[in-house]
Amino acid sequence: EVQLVESGGGLVHPGRSLRLSCTTSGFNVGDYAMTWVRQTPGKGLEWVSFIRNKAYDGTTEYAASVKGRFIISRDESKNIAYLQMNSLKAEDTAVYYCTRSREGSGWHDYWGQGTLVTVSS
Amino acid sequence: EIVMTQSPATLSVSPGERATLSCRASQSVSSNLAWYQQKPGQAPRLLVYGASTRATGIPARFTGSGSGTDFTLTISSLQSEDFAIYYCQQYNNWPPWTFGQGTKVEIK
What is the pLDDT of residues A5-20, one digit of tens each? Predict the structure, then answer.
């Protein structure tokens, strides 16, 4: 059974860092594209970051709003995807979901349950 | 960036009735469109991809149609478990992948 479980969210001060983890089971995280999507009441669902599967050398993409501050990665030995979030801003406050996509498909066939990140002083 | 616009924002429907949800793209996305369902406190769930292909395990009462810029999700006979928020997402031009703002289907 395919499962994705996010962790690492919480309350953090502006300017600080946080690392989210997406622990997966039922598939090899290196064989799929992995994405982080966030959701806020005001902006809805927003794509954040994407890492391609190992056949595509794990190349990455970032939304303009997080480029230069967030880093996506994965550890195939642990079957975990990560989102390192640096220089956090209040507008990064959201529920963060990790998702799985078949390489080249573009749609997200499995989602984790989400983890809440609150950036506030 | 392709902007996805969903209408209506809220749809009030009685159980057993048909619901028709619309999604419009600011430019053509061919058939590269997916639909998701989200219930309170849960993650979105994939319903349809390729504009009209139902995902694994999705009941036949969910039908996606359209291509280019105009798309429709039809729920033929609403069941109690179908009251939720529905989102469309384009994956034709990326990055970024973009989502609509959602249509809430509520009980009339």
Answer: 999 999 999 999 999 9
